[in-house]
Amino acid sequence: MTHDEAHEHQTDRQQQGGQQLSLTGSVALGTGVMIGAGIFALIGQVAELAGGWVPWAFLAGAVVVGFSSYSYIRYSMANPSSGGIAMLLKAAYGPGVIAGSFSLFMYVSMVLAQSLLGRTFGNYALRPFEMQDSLLWVPVLAVLAIVGAALVNVVGNRWVERSASVTAAIKIIGIAVLAIAGLFAAGVSSLGRLVSPESATPDQGWLGFLAGVTLCILAYKGFTTITNQGGDLKDPKRNLGRSIVISISLCTVLYLLITVAVTGSLSVPQIIEARDYALAEAAEPLFGAWGVGLTVVVAVVATVSGLIASLFAVSKLYDMLRDMGQVPGLPGRREHQSLLITAGLAIVMAALFDLSQIAALGAILYLCMDIAIHYGILRHLKEEVKAKVWIPWVAIVLDVAVLVPFLILRGSSDPFTLVVTAVVAALIILAQWVIVRRRREDSDNDEQESEQLR
User: Fold this and answer.
1) What is the spatial distance between Cα 356 and Cα 333, in angstroms, rounded to a whole number?
2) Which residues of 407-423 are buried (b: 16+ CB within 10 A; e: fewer)?
3) For the chain, is the Cβ count within 10 Å smaller at the N or the C terminus?
4) Contact predicate 49/208, CB 8 Å
């Protein structure tokens, strides 16, 4: 399917009234993807890099994502579709290796986010039984969570929206209650840790702080899935941008509340020690067993609903990539193919990698894709989408400013993950080169056959 055909197909769907999502449903799905593993699993990992500056790192992550969101909003408002990012890259770079590779960078990073959600579900669900570090049961529960979320998606869009709306409310209220109660229980004096000398500068200095911001971005990057809702959203040209802004704003407030509460309750070494389940650990000294129980319930709801929303959105992206000829489909009926492929890949990654490796791999691939998005807007699409050029340039500078320190520190502490990332990136690029070459050969053969028939 060509770019024009894909766009016409999308337009036909919209004219036929195929939209299912309201603005509220879109925000629920967006926050459903965002409020999940990011806040529940990454606080400890961010603390390893940013020290006591965890809340500031999450605030800085919101600033970076705020600038990044501009490019997505401008393009999505002008060209809403169910494959927003894929269509943006294709419009910017043409139907070649570059667009296909960076689209798959995004796809793989979102699949990694699903495996992160799955493992976070396992960690928190096992916390009441003191089995949160189990090498067997954490991945087993992760796989079960992904399978369950996939089954919910099989039911259909309307059920996904309804479940997302309910669980989003539970998550937002639950996290807000935990955060506000935590602030009161820890006392106002605990806020002094945010500016105290021992926590003012991370052990690894500003390099560590900036690297920590890279991981914080994972807690926000789910907003990009909203760009894939264009084919299902009512009045997408008006509501896509609003949905993205509302989702990022809601998450920023919640993340700041909860990280301030955690850093007020636990010291940095304590946060790092319980890095995969820091919120539950922070609740115990403040509220006792019921606090841990409430945290576990909210975490389970957040991760499962995040999986449901993410599988819905990322399957849409795979559908568009398949229609554009960038990825293969399975033999037989197309119904639920993208869902099966996406869930299957997430299961494999959840079984093979731990939270730290998943987060690092996903962050690197996402930021590389994000830079390509902004450069594509600047070089090819700024007139079409009426973009103010200084904003994408600032977004690129900020992306590089946090990515480079992360690569430096990760390379010194865990070079294996960087090697895996490089191998994954190389395989994606090679696969796209083969696909594009084969597509061109098929096109040439079709033209020759057409000429012979004449």
Assistant:
1) 37
2) bebbeeeeeebbebbee
3) C
4) yes
Residue ranges in the chain whose pLDDT is less than 50: 1-19
CA 258 – CA 267 distance, rounded (Å): 15
Q: Which of 322, 328, 265 is nearest to 292 (CA)?
A: 265
Domains of the chain, residue spans:
23-438
- pLDDT per position as a tens digit, 240-298: 889 999 999 999 988 988 888 888 878 888 888 877 677 777 777 767 777 788 888 88
Core vs surface per residue 296-323: b (16+ CB within 10 A) or e: bebbbbbbbbbbbbbbbbbbbbbbbbbb
Q: Is 248 in contact with 32 (CB distance < 8 Å)?
A: no
Phi-psi region of 405 (alpha: psi -120 to 50; beta: other; left: phi over 0): alpha
Q: Which two tokens stand for residue 431?
A: 């696969």
CB atoms within 10 A of CB 389: 10
What are residue 233's DSSP bridge partners? 21
Angstrom distances, CA of residue 198 to CA of 53, 172, 278, 328: 11, 32, 20, 53
Measured CA to CA in angstroms, residue 324 lies from 26, 53, 229, 320 at distances of: 25, 44, 17, 6
- Token pair 């900020």: residue: 398
Q: Please give the mean pLDDT across all residues of the chain.
A: 82
Give the angle 72-406-199 at the CA atoms, nearest 5°.
Answer: 110
Write out the two tokens for 263.
């850093």
Phi/psi class of residue 335: alpha, beta or left (left: φ > 0; alpha: ψ in -120 to 50)?
beta
Q: Does domain 23-438 match CATH 1.20.1740.10?
A: yes
